[in-house]
Design goal:
Blueprint: H1 6-16, H2 25-29, H3 31-36, H4 40-43, H5 48-52, H6 60-67, H7 72-83, H8 90-104, H9 108-115, H10 125-138, H11 169-181, E1 184-188, H12 195-206, E2 212-217, H13 222-227, H14 240-251, E3 258-263, H15 275-279, E4 284-289, E5 299-301, H16 307-316, H17 324-333, H18 338-350, H19 355-364, H20 381-394, H21 398-407, E6 415-416, H22 417-424, H23 430-438, E7 442-444, E8 447-449, H24 452-462, H25 470-481, H26 487-506, H27 512-528, H28 532-545, H29 552-570, H30 573-586, H31 598-617, H32 621-638, H33 647-672
């Protein structure tokens, strides 16, 4: 069943205005609005296909323009003069529109109000069409039946709003009205002001208005984010590009009865190469962001919460024995920042400090922002200082500090509790439960989550590095090295890479050799999914430290990683050969006996095998034969416990070499003749 909207009316007009160029129809219908605003060149971008497929819709200002009674005659005149002269069968067109109205399922009053203007003679056609278009442009968006049920294809995450959420009624109403008029909206506000919880509250209040609601957290790039949606039946060894394309093809089916929330989109749109793909989806999309988006997009700016609702939160937290004037001064000192105020309220419940003592510390004790390189630039220094200050006032135990340090490396969307224990070596959930009680951690439904602002401050205060996070990083390396083709790892793959990213971003490089070892393990994991962005990130990090690294085998792996990138994304065999020669110079000429570990033997085998392959592809058969023979010698003499995983590649290269030598010999004989 089609939904009666402007796209449907436009499609009917398109079929009947046969003597008008189809890409001119949109600008002819709405000519006066675009001429009045000096935007006729913008109207030209609204091609027939984009309007019909709802990839281009009239902005809110335009809909408001035609909703005003005095502009009725403006549209009437444009239709009468610019459109209807090109329509071949005017009554046939009106009859199709009438059928659309009847089959839509709209409420009876709206249907009857439109049909009463159905024309009895040609003089009434323009009036009918004008009323139909104004209605279709301004019809409130409600859940329809166009989108398929996402739950049939996607494991939809459960979204729960905070039980301490208070106020925001005016903002929720204003946002609801804005979303009726706009399909893509950015909710902007500083970190910790409550954007994510605001959206969750909106979902709770309005979930019946949508067929589907999907809440996802931005993960480094929109390609990673969309590829990381947990679709049923995704293959664990599928490339990132394929996952992204498959998921996008499915999302393109969704219409505006589907709502997608992309949380923590903390970059400017121009910095993400796939942003335009997302904006062309037909469904409604909400982004929450700490970044200044600019004037080209619809932005809902989140103000600080009104003071009266902070007192409501205090009541919900059972803080009733503190003088209201003192609480008021505390809230004022914290600039009504939602997260900071919630944390201070929890601190009042748990600490030995009185309310007056805490107020004095907030007003008089300041912290130096000497770790700004670890804090994202879009966080207000004032709010960061408040959170930093409260961290110190909580006087966390060493165990709690360690957990916060490790959680600063966890994905923004949270981490499964058992998986966190597996990676971190934390033996029980006591510290997690304590941190949840004081509000530094959210723990529920077996998911541990830290507010992004809290996580970044924790990284600054508790300084994760290669020593104090060694067990966590060791286990992450094991995850990178043991990727198994099962459903569990399909879900984990994006999490693993996001944690690798956070180690690169937040961890101090206190042990260069170990950090380099971590990177050469993270790189091939990203390569499994052909994640070009992350592969390039890890290579650039390796390059910074390569010549400080003493382990020649690790350096060889770096050069081989460079070679694989050159082949995979640049198709540059000459560059791949150059990097592999550098790798070969890093390893011993002869391997054998008990002097070398299995890892070192594997590296030597792969370097010689790859060098033989690249020489072959560059046409140097003599050197190809030389290095493939070295790889074969290593295979025969060093692998007493069974061949390596890449041994088949050697035999393929040897067969290609043999074929090349035969062809070369035949060519020589032909030349002699």
């Amino acid at each position: 069943m089609a939904i009666f909207d402007f796209a449907e009316v436009f499609a009917v007009l398109l079929r009947y205005a046969v003597s008008l160029k189809k890409d001119e129809l949109y600008s002819k219908i709405l000519y006066s609005y675009y001429e009045f605003n000096g935007k006729l060149d913008i109207a030209a971008e609204y091609t027939a296909n984009k309007v019909r497929n709802r990839k281009k819709v009239l902005e809110r200002e335009g809909r408001q323009f035609y909703a005003e009674a005095e502009n009725y005659t403006v549209l009437y005149d444009d239709l009468n003069e610019r459109v209807l002269p090109y329509v071949s069968d005017k009554f046939g067109m009106c009859d199709e529109i009438r059928q659309l109205i009847i089959s839509d399922g709209m409420n009876e009053a709206d249907r009857d109000n439109l049909l009463k203007y159905y024309p009895n003679d040609e003089n009434e056609i323009t009036d009918f069409l004008t009323k139909v278009i104004i209605f279709s442009l301004n019809r409130p968006t409600k859940a329809g039946t166009e989108s398929p049920l996402m739950s049939e294809r996607i494991n939809i995450p459960v979204v729960q709003s905070c039980k301490y959420f208070s106020g925001r009624e005016k903002e929720l109403q204003a946002f609801s009205e804005m979303l009726e008029a706009e399909d893509k909206i950015f909710i902007y506000g500083v970190g910790g002001i409550g954007k994510s919880e605001f959206v969750k509250k909106f979902i709770k209040n309005n979930k019946s208005d949508f067929t589907n609601i999907l809440f996802i957290t931005y993960s480094d790039s929109l390609k990673n984010t969309i590829a990381g949606i947990n679709f049923k039946g995704d293959k664990s060894d599928e490339t990132l590009e394929n996952l992204y394309n498959q998921h996008m093809n499915y999302l393109r089916v969704m219409q505006n009865d589907t709502l997608i929330i992309i949380d923590s989109f903390d970059i400017v749109p121009e910095d993400d190469e796939n942003f335009d793909d997302i904006m062309e989806l037909n469904c409604k999309i909400i982004f929450t962001t700490r970044s200044h988006i600019g004037e080209d997009y619809s932005v809902f700016e989140m103000p600080n919460i009104e003071r009266q609702y902070l007192f409501e939160i205090a009541q919900k937290l059972n803080i009733t024995d503190i003088d209201k004037d003192t609480l008021d001064k505390i809230f004022e000192a914290l600039h009504n920042h939602t997260l900071a105020c919630e944390l201070i309220l929890r601190l009042l419940k748990k600490s030995a400090f009185t309310a007056d003592e805490l107020l004095n510390k907030i007003l008089n004790e300041h912290v130096g922002l000497d770790v700004s390189d670890k804090i994202r630039k879009d966080i207000s220094a004032t709010y960061y200082e408040h959170i930093h200050q409260l961290f110190r006032l909580f006087t966390l135990t060493d165990e709690q500090k360690n957990v916060m340090r490790l959680l600063s490396l966890a994905p923004v969307e949270g981490i499964d509790d058992k998986y966190f224990m597996q990676l971190s070596g934390v033996k029980n959930m006591n510290a997690i439960n304590e941190l949840d009680e004081i509000g530094l951690v959210y723990y529920g439904e077996h998911i541990i989550r830290v507010h992004p602002l809290v996580g970044e401050v924790a990284a600054a205060d508790f300084a994760p590095d290669m020593d104090n996070c060694r067990e966590f990083t060791d286990n992450l390396i094991l995850e990178c090295r043991h990727h198994l083709p099962d459903e569990e790892n399909t879900i984990r793959q994006i999490f693993v890479l996001e944690m690798c990213d956070r180690i690169v971003e937040f961890s101090a490089k206190s042990d260069t050799e170990y950090y380099f070892y971590f990177l050469i393990n993270a790189y091939p994991y990203a390569e499994i999914f052909e994640d070009e962005h992350r592969m390039r990130l890890y290579l650039n990090e390796m390059e910074k430290y390569c010549y400080e690294v003493k382990d020649r085998f690790s350096r060889a792996v770096y050069f081989m990683s460079r070679a694989s990138f050159a082949m995979l994304f640049e198709n540059d065999c000459a560059a791949a050969l150059k990097y592999t020669i550098s790798a070969q110079r890093s390893i011993p000429e002869v391997v054998g006996g008990g002097f070398y570990s299995r890892r070192e033997i594997d590296i030597c085998f792969n370097v010689n095998n790859n060098l033989g392959r690249f020489y072959l592809e560059n046409g140097n058969l003599k050197n190809s034969k030389k290095y493939l023979k070295k790889a074969l010698d290593i295979l025969k003499s060093c692998y007493r416990d069974g061949p390596p995983e890449d041994s088949m590649a050697l035999f393929i290269n040897l067969r290609k070499l043999e074929e090349a030598e035969v062809n070369n010999q035949l060519l020589l004989e032909l030349n002699r003749k």
